Amino acid sequence: MKNVKNFFEYFLNGDKMIKKIFFGIFSALLFLNTVNAVIINEIMYDPNGTDTGREWIELYNNNDFDVNISEWKLFESEVNHKLTAFQGSDILNKKEYLIIADNPEQFLNDYPGFGETIIESSFSLSNTGEIICIKDNTFQTINCVDYSSELLANGDGKTIEFSGTEWMESLVYYGTPGMENSVYSSGLEINQNTMQIYANVISGGIEIKDINISPDYYENEGFQIMPNAAIYKDITISAIVENKDEGNISSVSVLFKDTTFEMTKIQDLNEYEHIYQINLSMNFYDNPGIYEVFLKAESSSSNTNKTAEFEYLKLMAIELSSNEINFGNMVKGKNSSVSDAIILSNIGNVFSDIEMNGKAFTSGESFLGIDNLYYKTENSDFIRFSSLPFMAGIDLECKEESSKSLEFKLYIPENTKSGNYSSSLSITAIER
After folding, report:
1. 260/109 Cα distance (integer angstroms)
2. Alpha carbon 144 to its chain's center
3. Count of CB atoms within 10 A of residue 327's CB?
4. What is the DSSP letter of 316?
5. Would you say residue 421 has pLDDT above 80?
């Protein structure tokens, strides 16, 4: 326990960037990352006015299955606090939220009409910061957060929320309990742009009056499209075409990525105005940036054109072929056991380097250093793990198929106490 305590003290006093990476997107129990886990999602640690009875913690179940938390614990101030259902049940349904409150009655006074699950627990959060964790019924850590007043939300009526990559002050007062976080997308790197529109209008002829590109990811000016990890992104281009010629519209087409596609009329708005539409797709590995669409409409006596553009946003995403490694029974002091290969794939559109680090193995109060774990890439010998983040020498290009094979081995020293040991690793994709 002394070594574990020293580790946390080092972590609390460590570099801020290490903390951010440590609690990054892809941290989990033996590769079970926050994309598929129960996570601490929002914290009200220092409400405006009195703190007494008004602190709360939000959990989110990002698994594809329900989770029973009836015997889970909230680890805070070095104490494992009991969790008791106050409103709702002990089952945290998939893709849903619950609130852990130290005073559920006061929470409902602050948030009248809140209908989601509320769990009661006795705790008092530090206004300067601390480490809080969620543990399962075997006291194994599910998720931890190391917050501090440097994240703001200190007495100003706001919470701190997890954006998917980092912790930030909420964009709204009193936070978003039971709802998607207000800062969920704010961690993305984007380049705002102004849509340039060009029109060749012929009086009494044909005119493209409006172009829409969906799904639009933000409410900012212009259109932004967010890629789908590992699969194509369907986009819809529609336009209102006005025709005051005597003849009918003969063609409405769009030039996109050097290919011309014919659009289909889907609706007549009135005698002169008609909606044309086409469904296209982007590859998940297409480069992020600005893409232009060029529309052309023709009738029997005239033609016109109009352009629009959208921003294809960055998507940094990696995927593991397995979310756990089980070495099974191992004998002390014998040759280490080697795991089956795990495939690490880039399913986004950003060329990524991989950074890794790991926690010590624990079994009750017994301790086994993470430096007994080794990993091997396709082009390397086995490399020793570290508790501090390190570059793993794994580069993943952004293309249709980009993956690397990983093998792991574990050595058990002769003086290791018997027991069932577990650890967790962090795998973080960093833009190259």
Report:
1. 59
2. 16
3. 15
4. -
5. yes
* DSSP per-residue string spanning 68-134: E-TT-EEEETTEEEE-EEEES-SEE-TT-EEEEES-HHHHHHHSTT--SEEEE------SSEEEEEE
| Residue 422 contacts residue 30 (beta carbons within 8 Å) | yes
- Tokens for 165? 């990559």
What does the mean pLDDT of the chain come to? 85
Q: Does pLDDT of 168 surpass 60?
A: yes
Helix H or strand E encompassing 148: strand 141-148
Residue from 213, 207, 275 nearest 240 by CA:
275
Query: What is the arithmetic mean of pLDDT over 65-74?
Result: 94
The CATH number of residue 291's host domain is 2.60.40.650
Integer Cα distance of 313 and 235 in angstroms? 13
> What would the pLDDT profile of 349-385 be if each residue is shown by its tens digit?
999 999 988 999 999 999 999 999 999 988 889 999 9
Task: Report the CATH number that the domain containing residue 405 is assigned in CATH.
Answer: 2.60.40
Token pair for 411 = 């050595």
Number of domains in the chain: 3
Residue 380 class from Cβ within 10 Å (0-12 exposed, 13-18 middle, 19+ buried)? exposed
Full 3-state SS string of 332-367: CCCCCEECCCEEEEECCCCCEEEEEEECCEEECCEE
State the pTM of this model: 0.48
Q: CA 320 to CA 387: how far, in whole Å?
A: 21
289 shares a domain with 333: no
pLDDT for 152: 85
pLDDT at 301: 82
Tokens of 50: 């009195």
Q: Which amino acid is at 116?
A: E
Tokens 């969790």, residue? 83
Residues 6+ apart with CB under 8 A from 152: 158, 160, 169
Hey, what are 371's tokens? 């430096």
Contact 130, 76 (CB under 8 A): yes
Q: Rounded to the nearest 10 degrees, how much is the dihedral formed by the CA atoms of 411, 375, 319, 138?
A: 20
Q: Which domain holds residue 269?
A: 206-312
Q: Please list the residues that pair with 46 across neighbouring strands.
A: none
Residue pair 242/272 in contact by the 8 Å Cβ criterion:
yes
Note the pLDDT of residue 193.
44
